[in-house]
Amino acid sequence: MKAVANYSPYGWRAKIGLIVPSTNTVAEPEFWRVAPKGVSIHSARATLLGNATTESYYKMAEAVIRSAEDLATAEVDIVTYGCTSGSIICPLPELLSNMQEKAGVPAIATAGAVVAALRALDVKKVAVCTPYVDFVNESEISFLNDYGFDVLSMHGLQLGETQAERRGIGRVPPQHVWRMARQADRPDADAIFISCTNLATFDVLQQIEDDLGKPVIISNQASIWACLRMLGLPDRIENLGRLMTDFLAPITTKDMLV
C-alpha cells in the first residue's frame, strides 16, 4: 500500500479542488473540458441565496471556507474559488488565507488569477465586460484600480440581481460574449477582460482574441491557468488565447496580491 499511497487513477499529476457558487453550471464543464492528461477536477458548491448584495457574498464566502475543508478530505493538491464577483467583493487576501488554512494546500480565487494573468501579459489598460449588475461592476472597477490596472470601459448585462438571473448567466450564448467584447473594446486597451465563471466563453475565446488583435482574459481560463502554474505544470492548451500558450512558468500567491 505504501507504494500507491499517493496514487490517483485520473489525478495522478494533480487534483484540483474547484469551489463554485451553487447556481454556476459553466465552470465545472469548462475546467473538465481542458484539464490536461493526469489532472482531475473535484468540485464543491457554495450557496448564494436571495438578491445579490454585499452581505450575501460574505455569506457565500463562509460556505467557501467550509467547502475548502470538505475538499481537503479528497486530498486535492490545490483549491480554487471559481467566482469572480465573490472574490472581488470579499477581501482577496483573507479569502486565500482562510481557504489555505482549511484545505492545507495552496489556494487561489478567480479574482487573484485574473490579476496574475493581467500581470503576466504586462497589461496596464484593460477593457472589461461582465454579465453583472452595477454594484458588482463598480466593485470590479475599484478592485482592478487597486491592483494597478486602468479600466477604460465597463460593459455589463445587468444580470444576477436574483438567483434566477444568476442561473440565467449560464444561458448567455457564447456568440453574444463575442459581441460584448467587441462593444467593450477600446483602441488603447492592452487587453480585454471578460468576467464571470458562469459565462460560457471557450467556444469564442480564441476568435475574440484573433478578431480584436489583443490578448483576452476570461475568468475560467485565468483560473485554470493559475491552478496549473501554481502546481508547476507547464501544459500548453491551444485555442484558449495567448495566456495558455505563451505563459508556462510557475506562479505563486504573491503574483495575485497587491
Automatic annotation (TrEMBL):
Gene3D superfamilies: 3.40.50.12500. It comes from the Bacteria. InterPro entries: Iso_Racemase_Enz_sf, MaiA/AMDase. This is Decarboxylase. The lineage of its organism: Bacteria, Pseudomonadati, Pseudomonadota, Alphaproteobacteria, Acetobacterales.
